[in-house]
Design brief:
alpha+beta; seven-stranded mixed sheet; 36% helix; 24% strand
Amino acid sequence: MSILGRVFYVQIVWGDHLQSKAIDQWTRELPIIAKRGLITDRNGVVLVGNAQSYAVYVRSRSVTDFDKVAITLADTLEIDGNSLYKKMTESATSIITVKRRVDKSTVDKLSKINLDGVYFSSDNTRIYPYGQSLCQVLGYTSTDGSGQTGIEKKYDNYLSGYNGEILYEADLVGKDLEGKSVKYLSATDGLNVKLTIDFEIQAICDAVISKAYKEYTPKSASVVVLDPSNGQILALSQSPSYDLNELPREDIETLNKVGRCSIIVDSYEPGSTFKVLTAAANIEEYLQGNPNAFSPDHVFNSSRFRSVGGKQIKCWSTHANGKHANENLAMALNNSCNPCFVDIAMSLGKEKMYDYIEAFGYGKVTGVDFQGEALGMVVPESAVTDGDLARISFGQTIAVTPLQLASATASAINGGIYYEPYFVSEIYDEYGNIAEIINPKQKRRVISNQASKILAGYLEGVVENGSGKQAFIEGAKVGGKTGTAQKYENGVISQGKYVMSFVGFFPSDNPKYLALAIVDEPIGGQYGSTVAAPIVREIFENIINCKNL
């Protein structure tokens, strides 16, 4: 009875497993590499594609002359012949990948030599038609074709596809059988990824940022352009950069440094661009009837100084000759007067200010579809002092990512809705069949539509009459805010080192484009108004021209 039971178990229960094992023993497979999906801009411009190439394999048990195979492949493919010989003679692996991404002429040359045990399969070489453009966003793949950084990594499951196989009949030791049959299992190619990026705008940003980098020789220069009405990222450009087609794979330190998408993964102290939040909080609270908020007509104390927590806080301006006198909120934004924003924060109080800091997304990720997004740094509400709160009001004692600030500003001027920023709008196959559509995602309302319209008008005034004049474009209704932030080293202010920025948008009454430009430690530039505002103006001028606005 026990024998019958064993027969039943072997034939019925264990049958599939034994059959699979037998098939594996009698066949040897060669991979067919799936074609990796394309990455395009919103209009179908191919930003990442593939070039035809081949992979070279060796099946050791089919090799009849190990010396000849090792020497020939070493000379032709420029590899280590001794290492290959050792793998062929000592490794238990049935299929050895000798080299991938081999060009057709080299494969043709090897085919004519007709080496026993050497096989070829189609492969893909990733190509980036625009070299340095969007390099920190697109990312790159490893030598085996899997996504390592950027969009290539974030959407690797869609882009990679599934490899196929060519199955050869072989004997038990892996040698080809005479008259063998061949079975072809086709690969499933990866899906294509469509970005929200507009390459026309991207090319504009690349040119302008490259020019600024050459002019000011800063540590870095960068810009991100959003559509404030839906959170789509239209362009992102950074200098220095590198050519994705010529990766410095051996220089990991340089690759990691230049390949970082600093707009998403790095934080900085924003300075006066953060005043947009403080102004928004005051306007909204005033409209809600909060007695601690200041009316639009309120005239702030014209003193250059405020004493908070036993320490003196001063304005960047000396206030000499009546400068910054008789300021209301609109004028305080025009002049970027620190004491006025200190007054707002201290009057609204810690709890209310932190409500807005949270609502505008500071201290947490935006949710952008990208690896490694930073949180920024916000002093915990339970630990913040009056002095901290005073400095936070004008963009000190807080660290943000550029994307956080751009997204927060977009929500402040687009009618009051915070949209999650994103890069990818659609996933589709080579025939155009759509696998997934990614729609704009509203996360929350941060201020009322009325407050947003008032604030956008004030920020238009900053460009027409205030510190943002160098972003002015006749007829374009540009709004914005300048920022010049001191840098700290070892906990103290580093003299002469600044991060200069400008966040601008247009048209101010119905914003469709928002740009944040940041220049880190420019040489020869004094303020965000003189360094970063002209960058945004030039980008907007070119968008107007290329889009016939």
